[in-house]
Amino acid sequence: MDSQEPLASDSINATDENTSPESESWLHKTWEQLVRLGLHDTARRVVAMISTMLFMVLAILFMNRFFVSHSGQKPSELGSSPSSLAESSGLALLPDFRIDNDQAEKHSIPRDTNMITILPERVRKGIVEHTIQPGESIFSIAAKYGLRPETLLWSNRYTLGDDPHIMTPGQTLLILPIDGILHRWSAGEGLNGVAEYYHVSPEAIVSYAPNGLSMASIGDLADPNIQPGTLLIIPGGYAEFSDWRTPRITRKEPATAKNVGPGACEGAYDGVVGAEKFTYPVQGEAWLSGFDFQPAANHFGIDLGGAIGDPISAVDNGVVVYAGWNDWGYGEMVVIDHGNGWQSLYAHLATVDVRCGQEVYRGDQLGTMGQTGNAVGPHLHFELRHDEYGRVNPWDFLQTLD
After folding, report:
1. Measured between alpha carbons, how far is 256 from 322 in angstroms, rounded to an integer?
2. 230 and 274 assigned to the same domain
3. ∠ at Cα 389 (386, 392), nearest 5°?
4. Is 52 within the bounds of a domain?
5. How far apart, in whole angstroms, are the C-alpha atoms of residue 130 and residue 170?
């Protein structure tokens, strides 16, 4: 005979048989009633939910008692001491950490506030003017604007004429935004020819925005639509300098310097020959004041500093082939032919103490330092020249001899 599962009512009846009427509680009666109504599953869920909520409430009460609340209450304010809480909870309490302002300044790393706002350097697009100040040179001005010295000469050819010695304080220079040449347009010029002369392409001139040109507006490159007098920037362009240097003057033909100025000598001279050992033309330590040897800037000598009246000496033995004023910006000048292919030049002198054809020896005084001619401040402009090598850098040959 198949076994049958007992009904819920049978189970309850069995329980009732083993339980006395006195021990039967109201809970059993309630549960029996719920089973009969089919609500026992819902009752279980309600009981579980209520139990969970009670557990959460108890947990919150427990945490509020042993931990600081968000309002800043401490355990001591809740009626218990920190030590008792630590003992009861098994937690280790750290000591309070306090530091006053003096200790904070002593043990901290200070960070100064930078009140200066660093702005990126703006790229210039147009031409600006610069007024030459006393003591400035073409090199210092070029460095100030981030340009090459020759760019300053090329952008001021109409005032300086390629000669850096013509610069004087108070004079105004035009400063290009980039290295190159400033060209004033003349009627009848062709853009092809101008570009070729400055070693650039016509497109380089037209495409440079500050020039305000376009291929459509200029039309024919051979006869472009550019107004005479327009200043054009030739980016990256370069040209040959006009040669304002004193010509080679020798003891055999000193008269070749007649067009240089009234200091030119007449006739031919014989005399002592140099030893090809050159001492410094100034006394004491030689230092640069103004221009250095830089052919790219059309400067083929060095400018040695000093005071007006300082003695200027011959660098080697030789014969004086020029003594007096120079019309090309050198002022009072002396030139010595050393008889071995070398000549030395001394310019901007205050006084000239030698005469044409005079023999001089290394260390003899030729004159005194000054600032005659196109000179900014007292200094000696000194050059060395050789028949074969041309103008050379004097720093490579000057030496101190016992």
Report:
1. 10
2. no
3. 75
4. no
5. 9
For 159-169, the pLDDT digits (tens) are 887 777 678 88
Residues 154 and 267 in one domain: no
C-alpha span between 9 and 15 (Å, rounded) = 10
Residues of the domain holding 146:
128-235
Residue type, 85: L
Residues 321 and 225 in one domain: no
Question: Where are the strands (E) in 273-352, listed by range?
Answer: 278-279, 302-305, 311-313, 318-326, 331-337, 342-352
Three-state DSSP class for 376?
A: coil
Taking the C-alpha atoms of residue 206 and residue 199, their distance in angstroms, rounded to an integer, is 14
- The answer, as to whether pTM is greater than 0.70, is no
Residue 118 forms part of a structural domain: no
Collect contacts of 22-25 with beta carbons under 8 A, ≥24 apart: none
Q: Which residues contact 294 (CB under 8 A, 6 or more apart)?
A: 139, 149
Same domain for 295 and 184 = no
What is the C-alpha to C-alpha distance for residues 354 and 339, in angstroms, rounded to an integer?
18
- Residue at token pair 């010295």: 149
pLDDT tens digits along 266-277: 878 889 999 999
What are the pLDDT digits (tens) for 195-209?
A: 999 999 999 999 999
The answer to whether position 98 is within a domain reads: no
